[in-house]
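Entry 14: structure prediction run for Secretagogin, EF-hand calcium binding protein. Input pasted below.
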Amino acid sequence: MEMFDKNRDGRLELNHLARYCDREERCDWLRASSQEDRRRDFEKIFTHYDVSQTGALEGPEVDGFVKDMMELVKPSLSGGGDLERFRKTLLAHCDINKDGKIQKNELALCLGLKLC
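Run finished. Output tokens:
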């Protein structure tokens, strides 16, 4: 979390992640200019990872999200250990109700985005 949370406010914000995406086309959603654009792009990204269409990322869906985000920062991940540590960090910060899943509203809140 520390590698993303540059202002140390305990929140993972889109602009914190965007710093690592300068050359990555898949990160355009992080740099959207308006709140409306950011909401729209967030919906697309969340839908991409929410393969089961439950409105929550769980199990392999969380793993896929974590893997893709971490590869932006640390392309040479050292296998499952790093991914598991990053996964636990994401769940600790974003899984507000501690059910082992990250609901859409939890991820939005964690990223500093208002959905409505």
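Notes: Helices lie at 14-18, 35-49, 60-73, 80-94, 104-110. Will compare against the previous run tomorrow.
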